[in-house]
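Task: fold both queries, return tokens.
Query 1:
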Amino acid sequence: MNAHGTKLSIIGAGAVGTAVAYASLIRGVARTIALMDIDTKKVEAEVLDLSHGLEFVPRTDIIGGDTMDVVADSDVVVFTAGAKQKPGQSRLELAEATIGLTRTILPKAVEVAPNAVFIMVTNPVDIVTSAALKISGLPNNQLFGSGTVLDSSRLRFLIAKHAGVAVQNVHAYIVGEHGDSEIPLWSSASIGGVPVTDWDALPGHGAFDEEVRDRIAHEVVNAAYKIIEGKGATNYAIGLAATRIVEAVLKNEHRVLPVSTLATGVEGLDDVCLSLPSLVDRSGCARRLDVSVDDAERAGLMKSAQTLREMQARFGL
């Protein structure tokens, strides 16, 4: 399936929503891209600015507005509306205001685009995804969160940088919460088919001993806080990550991505939304993969799930 006739809608014209729109426009992921926000002047200005670059991208129509009509008949809806994360504020602390906003906006989007695949990007994404599933009544495959797709990209970037290879040669996943309790799966991480733990260091580059792995994991967890402290928000990389998920859906790619959904059927995890490697295709999140983890990783995943379980309970989810 190509982009012909497809429609992508993005709810929220803030830093993240416009980054998704920009990345999607450049990559030509949909024939129509719609941007919706209650701030009329802002959304109209963003659409106008993007429209002025249409000469330089694949054939696309970019539309926008301040009512949910603009989202009607979408194939994919990316939900980015929510409270802005402040410096030093954890993702989980954003939950209350964002859940309230989701209760107001999401049902209206589902009403006008009942067959769309909904991708929740707003932080804290796991809690918001759990709330959105209950609010919308949509099945797990049709609504899921962006999860740790960005975190896994950060992990791969740091592994590639340390190893001195192209990031495209690295396969590694972050699982669990998109946040402070997330877990890198070192036991299955590889570089060009070589396990990371067996990597024979290139000249000028070190091996992946425990100290290096711990440093990289720490950098991944704290990456967003560092960016927010310096520029106020993370937007470019999450825009690209969300666009990659949209492509996997619209192009029916059957791509493995660590998206966040209710982990039904996974022992110890079936009551929380968190990220595990999953197949993403035109139906949405088609199914989760049975990924091998070692004892330490499984313990960390259970701890991450408990963190989310406690937060969900706090909000009656």
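Query 1 returned. Query 2:
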Amino acid sequence: MIDLHCHILPGIDDGPSELAVSLAMARIAVADGIRVTACTPHIYPGLYENEADGIRAAITAFRQVLAEEGIALELVEGADTHLAPDLVARLKAGSVPTLNGSRYFLFEPPHHVAPPRLEDSVFSLLTAGFVPVITHPERLTWIDDHYPAFQRMVASGAWIQLTAGSLTGRFGRRPQYWAERILDDGLCHILATDSHHSERRPPFLAEAREAAARRLGADEAVHLVLTRPRGILDNVSPGALPALPAAKPGARPGKGFWRTLFGPRHS
């Protein structure tokens, strides 16, 4: 398996603060069946001012430690990138790294507030030649009122990444509901761990692959954790990769379902 979203580098963002924890995460990933991990620290203006050169230096240093420890985990570069006015320019300049130097990059919307003109921003990124992989929409507190926007963004060419733990219930009932709905509606391109710690948020991916297989079949489960991630790393055109499955038949509760059950502040 290939994990394209992991905060495994020590001391660079809100992931592990100590090298020992990063090593523990790497061992867990390998034991789980992950062979390639994208190191994707936050690039969040005003909070985590990471850039490509610093991320690459941290990967090089961690790669050396993995070799010394005999941990067979391949590392590739990336970033968990937040929206900023100069994002297209920084992607073009290379200061914001894409996934393994490809056209694909992780694009993280704000967790608690829907950003204005999000669809316009995604369209601008697509027309600039980049493919935003929207991270964990199932965990956003505002998805209940904006789900059609994600459907439209996928239709326009954006990709979606679900967090593995959301699908298996590790983040609670609400993210699991939305993860399952996004899968069933044929909107999810890849699964990834978004791991931040060896204990609190470990890099488990196999259990989510099996959960996806039960809903969509074994072939699509492999596409979610291997085929499409490998295509991203190889910079394959989206049209040349396995298409998303058709939406499963059967109605789902519509807008306001989770607000009805839990109130507007539930997350």
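Both queries returned. Flag for query 2: The radius of gyration is 17 Å.
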